[in-house]
Amino acid sequence: MRLYQNLGIAAALMIVSLCTPAAHAQQEPSQQTPQDQPQQSAPPIPAYRSPLASAADNGDADGTVDPQKIIPDDHSLTGAENLGLGVPSLTHSYWQPHVDLVSSLDSNPVVSPGQSGWSTWTSVLAGVDLRRTSGNTDLTVTYLGGGMLSNTGNASNGIIQAADIKDKISFKRTTVTIIDQLNYTPGSTSGFAGLGSVQLPGAGLNGLGSGFTPGQTILTTLGQTLNNSFVTEVDTNVTHRTSISVIGGYSLLHYFDGSLLDFGNANAQVGYNYQLNRSDTIAISYQFSAIRYSNFDQSINNNTVFVSYGHRVTGRMAFQVAVGPDFAFLRSPINPASTTSGQGGTGSSGTGGTSTGTNSIQQIFWSMNAGLHYQLQRATLGATYAHGVGGGSGVLAGSVYDSVSGSMSSQFSRTTSGGVNFGYSHNKGLGVDGSTPVSETFGYWFGGANVSRPWGRELNLALSYQLQYQNSNSSFCIGTTCGSSVLRNVISFTVGWRGRPIGIE
Fold it and tell me: Which of 259, 280, 296, 327 has the most CB atoms around its CB within 10 Å?
């Protein structure tokens, strides 16, 4: 029943967002300076490309990107979203359907330690990209739904429901942005395998920053997981060089088919931005996050002060870095036997046992978030890095994590393109109760490559490979199988159809 309730909430959010532009259609459009207005109308939409794709996917025939065809990135440096290269200058509203059929060969379909034995999956996916501008509102919706079907019965089938919804309302000096990113998937979203070359909405370098998502940087077994992030951001221009950003949000990580730790994170941030020149911005911000577990009696409060720097060149480069101290307040039961980490044990949810007391400590950590987009003549490079205190991805009751990811996409010829991606994360458990001399750690690697070629104007063929590997300093169990490492290889072939954009009046 909880599953249907969560999916119902997600559907309601999408319906409300779709109706929002109509409510604001009568409002006056925001005033723009000449340099903020599009300098050229939208270019013809290329074959099998979505107008919502990154700037690298809307280039000229030789693979380069014309900055005159891109609206400059206007995200606040202290905002919830990562800085980008800009977006294509579209002059119309539209929606665009797409369907994908993926056949995959999987070496470890249940994602379990020490397991091997190739199996096959068939994934059927359908979705829609929508962009609607009306008056002073700009709505973007990306939705993907479908399922993964096990052909051999070695693993259970999986359901995929993912959406990225963004509604931006602009006034004379103030912009209000509402964002919701939802993923209901049969596994961790970090390095998610099984979809071939199809990407989950909201994934990649242009999504929400690490402080506003629950994070799933530890590989877990195959099982349905709900990962949701909701953010409301208000940006106000004080002068032509200065602005203030205020953000409030909530993120949730919930496991349906396991005994892992579920938690929510309420967060808030206020930031002051100063534009040094056309390309460079500096900022200072304060961020608060409160992590609470539904089946474990531990709480984490983070108070972080960031000093930030950003550099943007439209269509060419976007770089940002934020670093500062994190004053963390950690609380857990004194008696470690009163809870069972990762097994739904005791704690504030009252599922069994009693706590004999609490242990509260204060520690100073450091936090850092950095990101880089770089556009070459025929390729796009991207990388992100994050360090801080997080919720532990459902495996640890809080952790100090490092996470780095990168990607490169290239247009080999007019008809053939490809790319590579990689990621690494390291999580060390927060030993609040001091019950063990060494905290448990997890190291997780993923990487892959893909090559694609259009077949006509609306079909696309793609071949991809994805590797996942995780190890730990101690043995861990997934179901009845235990071990210290997990290895998974997935080879996928995708046939995709993307219809031509359909205009919206």
Answer: 296
* 437 burial type by CB count under 10 A (0-12 exposed, 13-18 middle, 19+ buried): exposed
Q: Is 62 helix (H, G, I), strand (E, B) or coil?
A: coil
Q: What is the pLDDT of residues 405-420, one digit of tens each?
A: 999 999 999 899 999 9
Burial class (CB in 10 A: 0-12, 13-18, 19+), 171: middle
Element (H, E) at 21: helix 2-24
Half-sphere exposure of 405 (CA within 13 A, CB side): 17
Taking CA 478 as the corner, what is the angle to CA 331 and CA 428, rounded to the nearest 5 degrees?
A: 40
Sorted by where each starts, the structural domains of the chain and their CATH numbers stand as 2-504 (2.40.160)
The pair of structure tokens assigned to 464 is 């991809």
- The DSSP H or E segment spanning 366 is strand 358-375
Length of the chain: 505
Give the whole-angstrom CA distance, residue 503 versus residue 505.
7
Give pLDDT tens digits for 419-466.
Answer: 999 999 999 998 654 444 457 899 999 999 999 999 988 999 999 999
Which residue is listed with tokens 């509402």? 178
Nearest to 198 by CA among 150, 145, 140: 145
Contact 500, 96 (CB under 8 A): yes
Q: Which of 406, 400, 331 is nearest to 368 (CA)?
A: 400
Sign of CA dihedral 26, 30, 36, 39: positive
Q: pLDDT tens digits for 60-80?
A: 433 344 445 788 888 999 999
d(Cα 351, Cα 357) in Å, to the nearest integer? 17
Give the distance, in angstroms, between the CA of residue 56 and the centroid of all CA atoms in the same chain.
Answer: 19
Q: Give the span between the Cα atoms of 388 and 207, in whole angstroms.
A: 18
How many helices (H) and strands (E) are present in the chain, helices listed first?
1, 21
Phi and psi of 15, rounded to 5°?
A: -65, -45
Contact 166, 178 (CB under 8 A): yes
288/309 Cα distance (integer angstroms): 20
Residue 92, φ and ψ in degrees, nearest 5? -145, 160
